[in-house]
Amino acid sequence: MSSSKVTGSFQLMKSLNRSLILNTIRQYEQISRADIAKKTKLTPPTVTNIVGELIEVGLVKESEVGESRGGRKPILLTIDPNHSFIIGLDVGGLLVRAVLTDLNANIKTQKTVDLPNELDNESLLMSLTKVIEEIIAEGSVPPDKLLGIGVGMHGIVNHIKGVSVFAPNFKLTDIPIKAHLEHRFQLPTFVENDARALALGEAWFGNGRELDNVICINVGVGIGAGIILNHELFHGQNGIAGEFGHMIVDLNGEKCTCGSYGCLQTIAGGGMLRKRALKEIELGRKTKLTEKMGTNLDKVTGALIHQCALEGDELSAQILEETGRYLGIGVTNLINLFNPTRVIIGGGVSKAGDFVIEPLREVVKQRALTPKARETDIVVSKLGEYGTVIGAVTLVLKDIFSPNLKSR
Ligand SMILES: [Zn+2]
After folding, report:
1. What residue ranges in 283-406 does DSSP mark as E strands?
2. What are the pLDDT digits (tens) for 44-61?
3. How many angstroms separate the CA atoms of 123 and 119, rounded?
4. C-beta neighbour count of 311 within 10 angstroms
5. Which domains does the chain have, with CATH numbers?
6. Could you give the CA distance from residue 396 to residue 400 in angstroms, rounded to a whole number?
7. For residue 99, what is the DSSP state?
8. Which of 150, 234, 345, 407 is 20 to 30 A distant from 190 in Cα terms?
């Protein structure tokens, strides 16, 4: 960690045995000292000692007594979620969502701010700093109660250095987010690509809980994926693993923002909904969209297309269905490649629910490799629009509760 000062409680949690015990209490929510010893294979005196320390600093508390299996009823231990707080940021193309949460990722304070149109590295970092200052002030949490900052950033991220390597929506490169925020706030800071943060959030608090292998897909203007293999996020050699939107699906396809041609994003990204609708309207197709937009073409958005589909508009339903089928092709490729237990769909396009998800599932059912693969569970994100920001918070939680030795 490059931060010069780390809070006392953070340091305390960093011991491996403490992390192990803390994570066991977190996972079971309520557990006795004896059961912790059994689950962790630590000796009962070690457990008693460490639990004593954790109770002393207020991180763990004794709760009501559990079921007796003959003899004295055991005292159950639980994490005190209000012991300390975490800041999470979701840095999208147009806005930043910020939250302050407790140790169970319950949101205490939240804030969404628009980003200026013209940004350079400096002004982006200033905007992030400002929103963090505001959320700390609004949450009125004492500085020594803050544990760390997590950032879910769109584009390509070097998660080890905490640098945004390329942020396509801002057309910026090499933004030193971790170094800047650690220097300013003196708090350990973690930065991850937004789709990977979403996957982590779903794995800890959403529809990916307790699953070994999950793929979480973020379908917005761009399409990204977070791949969790054996409970760990998969980054690849240079952090581009999961750039699902740039999987090439059409040899002769349209040019993509990445410079290549026929990427999945060019046919199934959120922007294509609008493009396809406008094309059909231009060709004179009858649709409710025409009434609703009037003369203002800007009104044709994914949300309006969804609304019209709900009201029975044939073209809108058809456009969503097409998007679902294209996504289904991509998801089938992912299933054949990684064979996950479950695929979770999040991001703006997932709000259209069954209009998109049903045709997506249909394609997988028809085209995945084996009968079992065809039955792969495909669900919508549980955390919805909060997925990435809760995932950002989870980056900090993960470092406390289940540190990966390799990343230190
Ligand atoms: Zn591309």
Report:
1. 342-346, 377-380
2. 999 999 999 999 988 899
3. 6
4. 11
5. 8-79 (1.10.10.10), 85-202+387-407 (3.30.420.40), 210-381 (3.30.420.40)
6. 7
7. E
8. 345
Q: Report CA(79)–ligand 1 centroid distance (Å).
A: 44
The pocket of ion ligand 1, defined by CB under 5 A, consists of 246, 256, 258, 260, 263
| Phi, then psi, of 229 in degrees rounded to 5 | -115, 130
User: Can you tell me the distance from the alpha carbon of 332 to that of 324, in angstroms, rounded to the nearest whole number?
Assistant: 12
pLDDT at site 70? 67
244: CA distance to ligand 1 center in Å? 9
Under 8 Å CB-to-CB from 364, ≥6 apart: which residues?
328, 331, 332, 335, 374, 376, 378
Adjacent-strand bridge partners of 405: none
How far, in Å, is the centroid of ligand 1 from the Cα of 265?
7
Give residue-wise pLDDT tens across range 243-261.
999 999 999 999 998 899 9
Q: Quickly list DSSP for 243-281.
A: -GGG-B--TT-PBPTTS-BSBHHHHHSHHHHHHHHHHHH
Burial class of residue 207 in the structure, from the number of CB atoms within 10 Å of its CB (0-12 exposed, 13-18 middle, 19+ buried): buried
Using the structure block, give the residue that is written with the tokens 């699953």. Answer: 211
Whole-prediction pTM: 0.88
Q: Do residues 399 and 393 make contact, with C-beta atoms less than 8 angstroms apart?
A: no
- Higher-confidence residue of 292 and 202: namely 202
Mean pLDDT of 301-329: 94
Task: List Cβ neighbours of 284 (8 Å cut-off, separation of 6 or more).
Answer: none
Q: How far is the CA of 112 from the centre of ligand 1 (A)?
A: 29
List the structure tokens of 7: 């809070």
Contact status, residue 102 vs residue 112, Cβ threshold 8 Å: no
| Cα-to-centroid distance, 254 and ligand 1 (Å) | 10
Residues in the chain: 408
Output the pLDDT for position 408.
Answer: 31
Burial class (CB in 10 A: 0-12, 13-18, 19+), 6: middle
Only one residue has tokens 């990435």, namely 388
Q: How confident is the prediction for the chain on average, in pLDDT? A: 90
List the end-to-end C-alpha distance of the chain, in Å, as a whole number: 8
pLDDT at 389 over 50: yes
> The tokens 């569970």 sit on which residue?
377
